[in-house]
Structure formats: C-alpha cells, structure tokens
Amino acid sequence: MLTNMLSIVSNDQTRPIRMVQITDTHLFEDPKTCFLGMNTENSFQSVIELIKQEHSLQNPKEQASIVNTVLLIIATGDIAQTPSATTYARFLDRMKTLEQPCIWLQGNHDLNHLLLETPQQQANKNLIELGQQWLVIMLNSSNDHETEGAFSSKELNWLTEQLKSYPDRHIIVALHHNPLKINSTWLDQCGLSNANEFWEVIDSASQVKAVIHGHVHQVFEATRGSIQIWSCPSTCIQFKPNSETFSVDILPPGYRWFDLYHDGRIESGVSRISRMPEGLDFNSQGY
Ligand SMILES: [Fe+2]
After folding, report:
1. Cα 286 to ligand 1 centroid, rounded to whole Å
2. Which is it for the CA torsion 159, 227, 20, 70, positive or negative?
3. pLDDT value of position 57
4. Dist CA 262 CA 132 (whole Å)
5. For 40-59, what is the mean pLDDT?
6. What distance in angstroms lies between residue 133's CA and the mean position of ligand 1's atoms?
7. Does residue 64 carry a pLDDT above 50?
8. Mean predicted confidence (pLDDT) in 61-68
9. What is the pLDDT of residues 78-120, one digit of tens each?
10. What is the dihedral of CA 134, 4, 210, 75, to 10 degrees?
C-alpha cells in the first residue's frame, strides 16, 4: 500500500477547521442521463452551489467575516454510475470550482484504475494532515464490480500502521461502505462484510474520533464507545431509513459538514438543497 499524503495548513488556532463531505454523486458518462428519473449531474451541481453559498466561496472578500472556511472536501465514493475517464474528469472539474482540495475514495460503483488515471493527481491521496492536530485517513472498502464492501488484509495492515504512526493526532477514518448495521435489511446485506476486523483495528487506537461513510444515501448517526459514526446524504437520490427493501425517500440531496476543534471535539450537521429536483420515480423498486 502506497501512502499518498497531503498536508493542509491551518494558521488560525482560534477557529475549528471545517471539512465538507459529499457522497454518491452517481454521475453518468453522458451528463444528460437520469438515475431513476433524476438528473444526477444537475443535482450534484445544485449541491456544489449550496456549499458555495453557505461558505461564501464565490465572494472571497466576505471570507474574513464568516465563521468557517472550508479547508478540505472529501468525496466518499460512488462518484460514477457509469465509470469512465470522462465521467471522473468531469467530476473533478466541477469540484475544482470549490477552490479547495478535494480528495476521493472508491465506492462500489467506481472502478479504481479509471479513478487513478484521472489527470487531477491531487485527488489521489489517502492521508491528509489537517492543521496541526487532525488527520484524515481515506480507506478503500470497495472491490471492482462487487456491491458488498470488504477490506483487504493489506488495507487493514496499512490502517494499523498509520494509527501507530500518529498517536498524538485526532483521527477521522473515511470509507464508502457502512461499517455498522443501519436497520435497513437490503442495505445491511451489502455493507462492510469484514466490519469486525475493521473495528478490532479501530478499537486499538483511542485517538480515532470518528468514522464517516457514504453508500447508504441517508443520514445515519451513532456512537460506538467514544467514536462517532456518521453517514452523509447523497448528492442525488435518498434511500428511506429503516426499510426492509429498496425504497426511495422524499428528501432532497445534500452534503455533510464537520467542524474539527483543536481539543478533539467534532460538531457535524447536514445541509440540503431547498427544492427537490424534478423527475425522480418514487415508486422505483431498485436499479
Ligand atoms: Fe451509492
């Protein structure tokens, strides 16, 4: 496992560091294609506009007066519904308009080798130093063409090494698949299959503050000991919580934000676009 590190400087010790998570954009090679009736390209763009509005990214003069400036954006997988170099390049071009480093990891719909071939090499990082206190570890729980997630032993060994190497950092671990059951039978059947091995590694490191993920297209929040677990809404369709079978929710797309305090505290919340994009088939039985 190669370690690709990015260091992001935060000079302001008086304010928390803001990180933004987006997930499950499900973009198509042809941007006019719809996913269960919803145009995922447009809904993704609407979420980008929302992030800009809420962080005044389009008006740098105002940045001094706002409470939080985004320092890092992470995308937790299922970037493409039809993975191709074109799809990924377009994703990264759109992310670039946020004018902050954007880091991605692979979801079950993605193809890692195509992601790695994109020209925007900056996005290919798995370790991010965020200010002097925080570290974000990006893991790959996906295997090409498999819906269910599973960490390779190489990936878990690499995670163990990183946790040993950074005993004094507050750590956030990010992955695509849900590492806990979320009480939706159909999604729990395709979560992280070797979650027990993953938690064994995490439990050995008291500096891990949070585990964050995508995949479930809904908000899920839990604690496990002192660790907080958060999922993020998709930038396109949402799945209904507590469902036995595939079920689409009426909530609009959104993103998650995190405020990382220097003492290890995290505040987090979700923000959604105000109007539901048109066209979604709420009676869909799956895809
Ligand atoms: Fe997804």
Report:
1. 12
2. negative
3. 54
4. 8
5. 87
6. 31
7. no
8. 51
9. 999 999 999 999 999 999 999 999 999 999 999 988 887 776 6
10. 110
pTM: 0.94
Ligand 1 centroid–CA 63 distance in Å is 33
258 and 268 Cβ atoms separated by less than 8 Å:
yes
Residues with CB under 5 A from ligand 1 (ion): 24, 78
CA 179 to ligand 1 centroid distance, Å: 15
What's the gap in Å between 79 CA and the centre of ligand 1?
8
How far is ligand 1, taken at its centre, from the CA of residue 69, in Å? Answer: 28
Q: For residue 24, report the distance from its CA to the centre of ligand 1, in Å.
A: 4
Residues making up the chain, counted from first to last: 287
Domains in the chain, start-ordered, CATH in brackets? Answer: 5-272 (3.60.21.10)
CA 266 – ligand 1 centroid, Å:
25
Would you state the pLDDT for residue 153? 97
Per-residue model confidence (pLDDT) at position 215: 98
66 Cα: distance to centroid of ligand 1 (angstroms) = 32
User: Rounded to whole angstroms, what are the CA distances from 193 to 7, 53, 210, 213?
Assistant: 32, 38, 20, 15
Residue 130 Cα to ligand 1 midpoint, Å, equals 27
CA of 239 relative to ligand 1 center, distance in Å: 10
Ligand 1 centroid distance, CA of 216 (Å): 7
Separation CA 95–CA 101 (nearest Å): 9
